[in-house]
From TrEMBL:
Species: Photinus pyralis (Common eastern firefly)
Family from the record: Belongs to the arginase family.
Enzyme class: hydrolase
Protein name per Swiss-Prot or TrEMBL: Arginase
Entry-linked CDD domains: Arginase
Entry-linked InterPro entries: Arginase, Ureohydrolase, Ureohydrolase_dom_sf
Length: 343
């Protein structure tokens, strides 16, 4: 039977959290760099129970998996741009992905994109801009990913997405065949870096000359992660009204805690700092898209892979409201018989 206490408890549990709808996109894409394996990350993350972990956060979380991106390449444009390796692959994948991100957002869901290497963020940010015009991006990374084909030492596309997105850099690019769908409409003032510690010389020049918001490891050391994230958000979204996008490269986390990644750099964020950053972003209530990229299950031992996948899972669940303080019970956890939902 229901007494007044149990009805009150049920009401509290039902009202505990806001409805959150999530759309998951897998992007098994690894042609933005040269190491095989990063394309298997969506499968590893799903197999490790990511979707279940999200559903466990609270009753009002609703997760829809939109599956993996499929694309076919146009061989006519291969080698058409100097120093952009496997260019035709990125062109084909990002075109499909951008549309899919827009679709997820237009369905009213927060878009969670599982990479793949970081070149795919060109598409996720583009797709986000199509759905919500005013977007601010936190780029969490050891690297700045702001090379052009002229400044890149590697020719790897995962080091170039920020430069492709920024309107301030559009003059630095040659004509890019097959990329006419992508207009660099985003201002670099709407992007903030967290976690930088491996920045190429021309990237440093650009960051300084354009005054890009950047909280590298030195600033994090100085002010702490909490202050740095708030300062970054205040700068890229001063009115606190923009739709937020977090592009999270797992190599921002120290390689001791997330070793299975293609370009690891020591001296990075702790997992605790990565989680706290996401807790702050969650609390804004304006988070609409997350990319989790650069987990490479072919790098390191089984233990390394398990560490990296679990770090990624913790970071993602924090972004959707998982609380280290402990989660409230769900309706079916209550030690009472539940009345009909009209109460
Ligand atoms: N998303 C990444 N892990 N990027 C690493 C980029 C490394 C280097 N700056 C390059 O352009 O090749
Ligand atoms: Mn990156
Ligand atoms: Mn990186």
């Amino acid at each position: 039977m229901f007494n007044r206490v149990s009805v009150r408890l049920l009401r509290q549990v039902r009202n505990a959290s806001l409805k959150t709808e999530i759309g998951v996109i897998g992007v098994p894409f690894e042609n933005g760099q040269r190491k095989v394996g990063v394309g298997n990350a969506p499968k590893f993350l799903r197999d490790a129970g990511l979707i279940k972990s999200l559903q466990k956060i609270h009753d009002k979380i609703d997760v829809k998996d939109y599956g993996d991106i499929v694309y076919s390449i146009d061989h006519d444009i291969s080698n058409s741009v100097p120093n952009m390796l496997m260019y035709e692959h990125m062109v084909a994948c990002t075109k499909v992905l951008s549309k899919q991100v827009t679709r997820v957002l237009n369905d009213g869901r927060i878009c969670l994109t599982l990479g793949g290497d970081h070149s795919i963020a060109l598409a996720t940010v583009d797709g986000h801009l199509q759905a919500k015009s005013d977007v601010a991006v936190l780029w969490i990374d050891a690297h700045a990913d702001i090379n052009t084909n002229l400044t890149s030492d590697s020719g790897n596309l995962h080091g170039m997405p920020v430069a492709l997105l920024a309107k301030e850099l559009s003059d630095y690019w040659p004509y890019l065949p097959g990329m006419d769908w992508q207009k660099p409409v985003m201002s670099i003032r709407n992007i903030g870096y967290i976690g930088l510690r491996s920045v190429d010389s021309f990237e440093r020049l650009l960051i300084d000359n354009l005054g890009i918001t950047a909280f590298g490891m030195e600033e994090i050391e100085k002010y702490g992660i909490h202050q740095c994230v708030h300062m970054a958000l205040d700068r890229i979204d001063p009115t606190h009204t923009k739709s937020l996008h977090v592009s999270f490269d797992i190599d921002s986390i120290d390689s001791l805690e997330a070793p299975s990644t293609g370009t690891p750099v020591r001296g990075g964020l702790t997992l605790r700092e990565g989680i706290h950053l996401m807790e702050i972003v969650h609390k804004t209530g304006r988070l609409n898209a997350i990319d989790l990229v650069e987990v490479n299950p072919s790098i390191g031992t089984g233990h390394d892979v398990a560490l990296t996948v679990s770090a990624a899972t913790h970071i993602i669940t924090a972004a959707f409201g998982y609380s280290r303080k402990g989660l409230r019970p769900k309706v079916h956890d209550l030690p009472i018989q539940t009345p009909p939902s009209s109460t």
